Amino acid sequence: MQLPPKVTERAFERLSEIGAAGQGQALRVAVEGGGCSGFQYEIKLDAPADDDLVLEGNGERVVVDSVSLPFLSNAVIDFTEELIGARFVIENPNASSSCGCGTSFSM
Hints:
It holds the Pfam family Fe-S_biosyn. With 107 residues, the chain is mainly β. Helices cover 9% and strands 44% of the residues. It has a single domain, classed as HesB-like domain (Hypothetical Protein Aq_1857, Chain: A), CATH 2.60.300. A hairpin with a 2-residue loop joins strand 6 and strand 7.
């Protein structure tokens, strides 16, 4: 059973700080072939498309295209701030392994 990804309150708060909705944009989370583990995440600000899954919170939106959706079933999209920097991260229960940088994974 395919469950939609979840977005944490912290991720929506960061989008609000960025002002994405005010620019007519959302955080796009996509999965592409490539990276050191076979698949990689692409995370960027983008305009929503008609066939995107739209997740809303705090007046902000996160969108996932229909091709990426099965790879992100039940994943958690979060925002983290660490000594090495701040970034959006994805906790993906579908990934059998991932690289050290957290941007690529295999299934």
